[in-house]
Known about the structure:
Number of domains: 1
Shape: globular
Strand order of the largest sheet: 3-2-4-5-1-10-11-14
CATH topology: Rossmann fold
Structural class: alpha/beta
CATH class: Alpha Beta
Number of helices: 8
Order of helices and strands: HEHEHEHEHHEHEEEHEEEEEE
CATH architecture: 3-Layer(aba) Sandwich
Radius of gyration: 17 Å
Mean pLDDT: 91
Distance between the termini: 12 Å
Amino acid sequence: xxxxxxxxxxxxxxxxxxxxxxxxxxxxxxxxxxxxxxxxxxxxxxxxxxxxxxxxxxxxxxxxxxxxxxxxxxxxxxxxxxxxxxxxxxxxxxxxxxxxxxxxxxxxxxxxxxxxxxxxxxxxxxxxxxxxxxxxxxxxxxxxxxxxxxxxxxxxxxxxxxxxxxxxxxxxxxxxxxxxxxxxxxxxxxxxxxxxxxxxxxxxxxxxxxxxxxxxxxxxxxxxxxxxxxxxxxxxxxxxxxxxxx
Length: 246
């Protein structure tokens, strides 16, 4: 596996693994990103909790259990429509990994704020709980994100601000994402930040990017920003996990 470049341990600094797309819901026959997430907890049998963004999302929850019961972990899920306990903070802090799925990011964040899950997740992150997810579960951790939460358009969204800058998932998977992200950066509606193809995960230790990994050999990530009024992409070539998990 790739070695950490940070001088701090993950438990000291906190970890976020943000996937542009992939994981069990997008690549059910390709578990590389999910196996990577489990390994980064540092636990032999980590407790992993799935948080679906939209409603009950019963089918999504079933697919999560179907995938993760095959691995050496202890899967659970959190529904804010049928909470497992009145003490959500203790429930979250007992977990090793929180895995947020894809869906409507704007609605998800509004629901989280109503239940104070945004505050609880920040506490969990700073106390060694690994946070991860794809799509909405990638967007939410940054200052800003490019979202399709409003049907028919891609807009800027204020997010949790655990990580600095903006972000864009599905950079190669949805043709309108790349031009929209670059346009909003050029117009000053989004800060510069990170973009990732489907199958790429960016692994942050604290607020610093530690490494990029991928479940697809040709997938890429990018730092995107303005230079002299023009949008510039700097390619981040990830480590292909197919050479790490066999």
